[in-house]
Amino acid sequence: MPLFHLMEIFAFVFGACIGSFLNVCIYRIPEGKSIVYPPSACPQCGYVIRFYDNIPIISYILLRARCRRCHMHIPIRYPLVELITGIAALSVFLKFGPTPAAGIYFLFIAVLLVITYIDIDHQIIPDILSVSGIPLFFLLGFLVPYIIWKDALIGIIAGGGTLYVVAVGYQMLTGRDGMGGGDIKLLAMIGAMIGWQGILFTIFISSLSGTLIGLLLTLPAGRSMKSRLPFGPFLAAGAIAYIFFGPQLIHWYLGFARTTG
């Protein structure tokens, strides 16, 4: 088997293993628990998960989605997160090769995945992820040749500032809180990694997809949403889309606009 294909397999397996750790982060960070200790255990019977029951994706299949001791059902989310993270690792490897940029973008996507699932479960975005991520990804950006530090700095200001203005305007017009502070900090973190151009793309994609999903969720009974739809997952999806397709889509759109204008 060619070396490159072996590296592709390694990238996926490595990503899936990291996905197993992300599941721990998703579960423990909102509860303020350590992500290192104690070892993972069944939440119902306390059975400490052995290494052979913690093989990403495979163990879930072999255990038939149940705890080995008490047979409690294991949610499909666990192997799904592992699969998504494995695909993310493979994707950045295929796009950027074995470079520091691939590792940095993978770390960024991993943080976005944790934020996404925490926001879905609890409708919060922990500061330990977003606020800490702002200086972290700004500094790591110096190792990525595609990022200019001035663009990243403007991205931080534009990302946080744009949603802050939207949140204040919505509150003044309606008297209700709309955009959460967590979303503002998250977009600032995204700006630190992908710059102001990525912020514009992310806002457009997240707003469009959020609106479409919101409309789809209200269609079945023709009623309004009973609970606020978390916006963090849409921001994360927009940022990830920009990493893989953003510059190409922007270039295509500008070319299309020039030919039809």
Question: Explain this structure to me?
Answer:
The protein is mainly α. It has a domain at 145-261. Helix content is 69%, strand content 0%. The radius of gyration is 20 Å and the shape is globular. The model has no long low-confidence stretch (mean pLDDT 89).
Ends apart, CA distance between termini: 51 Å
Please state the overall shape, judged from the principal axes of the Cα atoms: globular
What proportion strand? under 5%
Strand count = 0
Radius of gyration: 20 Å
Largest sheet: none
Class of secondary structure makeup: mainly alpha
Helix count from the secondary structure assignment: 8
User: What is the averaged pLDDT score?
Assistant: 89
Which residues sit in consecutive blocks of at least 5 with pLDDT less than 50?
Answer: none
Task: Specify the oligomeric state.
Answer: single chain
Which percent range fits the helix content?
Answer: 55-70%
Please write the string of helix (H) and strand (E) elements: HHHHHHHH
Search tags:
261 residues; mainly alpha; 8 helices; 0% strand
What is shown here, in short?
This protein has 261 residues and is mainly α.
List the helices and strands and how they pair.
Elements lengths: L2 H26 L29 H5 L14 H20 L3 H23 L4 H14 L8 H26 L6 H38 L13 H29 L1
Helix pairs in contact: 1-3, 1-4, 3-4, 4-5, 4-8, 5-7, 6-7, 7-8
